[in-house]
Amino acid sequence: MSGPRRIRPPHIMGQNVANYMRYLMEEDEDAYKKQFSQYIKNNVTPDMMEEMYKKAHAAIRENPVYEKKPNKEVKKKRWNRPKMSLAQKKDQVAQKKASFLRAQEWAAES
């Protein structure tokens, strides 16, 4: 039981993430920018991680009730094509056949 307790506090305070951020900063700048783009955008550095987590934990302790966010309004609706009846399918095939035959006749005349 001593194993999991030893690694928990650093993980709870985000030190594993901060260490990985530092590693990527030194080793691969492009991977760091890709992996932590939102952190960069919000000016979060590896040194700020522990303080950020402490603030988050304090805010949760202050008000632990989860407040559900309102659903965002859907901008686009995906509509599937309605199923065709057998008569519609046969009509569509007949139209395609007629179009193909016209194209064949036109090609033969040219």
UniProtKB/TrEMBL annotation:
SUPFAM superfamilies: Translational machinery components (SSF53137). It comes from the Eukaryota. Transmembrane segments: none annotated. Residues 49-102 form the Large ribosomal subunit protein uL18 C-terminal eukaryotes domain. Keywords: Cytoplasm, Ribonucleoprotein, Ribosomal protein, RNA-binding, rRNA-binding. GO terms for biological process: ribosomal large subunit assembly; translation. One of its GO terms (cellular component) is cytosolic large ribosomal subunit. Residues 63-94 are annotated as: Disordered. It is found in: Cytoplasm. Residues 64-73 have a biased composition (Basic and acidic residues). Belongs to the universal ribosomal protein uL18 family. This is Large ribosomal subunit protein uL18 C-terminal eukaryotes domain-containing protein.
